[in-house]
Task: inverse folding
């Protein structure tokens, strides 16, 4: 499932893997020095909890630490909206896209099943009717194997039942879990996946995992609305192109408050 961005024409191969398997791992696209700076910024924020509004990570449960993706490092906005990422997803979906969300996510590796394998049904969108509607995007901030993202290849082509989005709800849950493939990747590698397929982080595991997690959906099916409001620092947007700004949700609405 790995595509090397240093190989000419890698975009075509990446789109083909998305069509066939629903997932692709892209290496050597992001600048290694930039990825290292983002990693160091992540280490700083993940080292201390937010206390009464102070700068630090937040927790929604005992299994992970999180922070807004565009607020912990000045570099994330340009890496998440890399023009090649936008081009690949728009070519694959055959739609203009808008971002869903962006967050820093650090899974603690607590030997627990804390985030069930799932798929997105598009039930929060309009007029999807069997069309491809969105892709998740994440990049690894360190070499990642244990605890890496898992995906059931080809499951993006399975019929969608809006009442079934958790693997525990599916009559074939054991078969789904047995056939999930772990998407190992080196530091800085990107995972792009059709969010209609079965996916989630490998668990239970004992090793921590740190990623920047985001995604894009069709502008038409989302009515040009991000999944949630996305905070961004105005000082970090000066180098963005109009294409990047559009995909990030400039001049868009939102389906949920921040």
Result:
């Amino acid at each position: 499932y790995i595509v090397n961005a240093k190989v000419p024409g890698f975009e075509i191969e990446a789109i083909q893997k998305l069509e066939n398997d629903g997932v692709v791992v892209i290496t050597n696209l992001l600048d290694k020095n930039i990825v290292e700076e983002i990693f160091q910024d992540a280490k700083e924020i993940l080292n201390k909890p937010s206390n009464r509004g102070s700068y630090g990570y937040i927790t929604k449960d005992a299994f992970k630490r999180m922070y807004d993706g565009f607020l912990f490092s000045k570099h994330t906005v340009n890496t998440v909206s890399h023009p090649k990422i936008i081009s690949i997803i728009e070519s694959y979906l055959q739609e203009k896209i808008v971002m869903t969300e962006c967050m820093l996510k650090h899974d603690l590796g607590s030997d627990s099943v804390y985030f069930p394998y799932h798929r997105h049904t598009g039930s929060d969108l309009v007029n999807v009717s069997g069309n491809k509607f969105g892709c998740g995007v994440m990049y690894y901030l360190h070499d990642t194997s244990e605890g890496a993202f898992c995906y059931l290849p080809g499951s993006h082509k399975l019929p969608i039942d809006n009442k079934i989005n958790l693997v525990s709800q599916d009559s074939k849950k054991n078969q789904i879990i047995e056939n999930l493939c772990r998407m190992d990747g080196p530091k800085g590698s990107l995972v792009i996946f059709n969010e209609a397929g079965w996916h989630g982080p490998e668990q239970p595991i004992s090793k921590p995992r740190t990623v920047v997690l985001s995604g894009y959906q069709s502008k038409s099916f989302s009515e040009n609305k991000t999944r949630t409001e996305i905070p961004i620092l105005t000082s970090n947007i000066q180098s963005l192109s109009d294409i990047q700004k559009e995909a990030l949700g400039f001049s868009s609405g939102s389906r949920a408050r921040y």
Observations:
- The longest helix spans residues 32-46.
- The two ends are 34 Å apart (CA to CA).
- The CA atoms of residues 6 and 28 lie 6 Å apart.
